[in-house]
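Feature request disguised as a bug: please show the residue count (305) next to ZC12D ribonuclease in the output. Example input:
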Amino acid sequence: VHQSKLDFFCKLGYGKQDICKVLENLGQEALEDDVLKELIRMGSKPQALENQAQPSQLKLVARGSCSTTPGLKWLGEDESDGSNSLRPIVIDGSNVAMSHGNKEVFSCWGIQLAVDWFRERGHTYIKVFVPLWRKEPPRQDSPIADQHILEELEKQSILVYTPSRKVKGKRVVCYDDRYIVKVAYEKDGVIVSNDHYRDLQNENPEWKWFIEQRLLMYSFVSNRFMPPDDPLGRHGPTLNNFLSKKPVLPEKKWQPCPYGKKCTYGNKCKFYHPERPHQAQLSVADELRAKTKVPLAPGKEPAPC
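Example output, currently without the count:
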C-alpha cells in the first residue's frame, strides 16, 4: 500500500521525501485525498509547476568566450554591425577638433573631416565623444568654430556628449577619455586620437595593451584628414589591415639578387636569380669541380700519381 501511494504521488510530480513525511504523519491507511491536502498544506508543489514558476534567466557570457549563446546587444544598433569586416571607430572629438584648430580653436569641421574619411572607407559604426559643455555658447577663453556641425552629427547618432553639470557656479565634467577607451575596448574597435592616455594605461593593464595596439594617430594636411599608412611602425600592419577585423597577409615576393650573374653564393644565396629558375643552384666551387671531372675510357686505369 505504501509503495502504490508513493508511485501515485510521484507520477503527480511530488517529491519522494515530502510523500514519505506525510505518510509517516498520517499513517499508511490514510486516504489519498487526505495525503494530497497535507502535501498542499506543507507547500509542496509538483516539479512541473515549479519549473513554470521560475522565470527564464538571461545568461551573461564573458567577452571573448566561444559560447554560441548570443550576448546582449547595445541599444540602437543593427545586426549588420557584426557582419561588417571593418572595425568600429571611436573618435576623440576634443582631440581632433583642437588639432584641426591648431590648439587654439575647437574646430568642429575637423571632426566632420574625420567622420567623412571613415564613412568613405565603409565603416558603419562611428562614434564621436565630446563633453556636454561644448554645446554652450562660445567664450573668449574657449572659442568654437562651426558649432552647428555638432548638432548635425548628434541627429545622425554619431556624436555622443559626455555628462557635465554645474555645482555652485563651478562646472563638474566627467572624464571623457574613460568613455572613449571603455567603448572602444568593449566594441573591439579603434581609437582615433593623438593622445596616449597614459593615466588610463596605468589604471587598467588590459586597457594598456589595447591602447598600445589600437590607437590610430593622424595629421591634418591642408584640411585633409590623413592617418599613417603604418600605424604601428614600419614592421607593423598596414592601415587596411589595422582597420580590418580579418587582415589580409601580403604575398611573399622574392627580391632579386643585387649581384646578378656575378653572385658567388650559388644555392646558398637567399635572393632570387631569374637566369636560373629551374636549375639546381650550385656553388661556384661545385660547378668548377663538375666541369673539371673528365670521364675515363672503359678498360683503362688511372695513371699513378
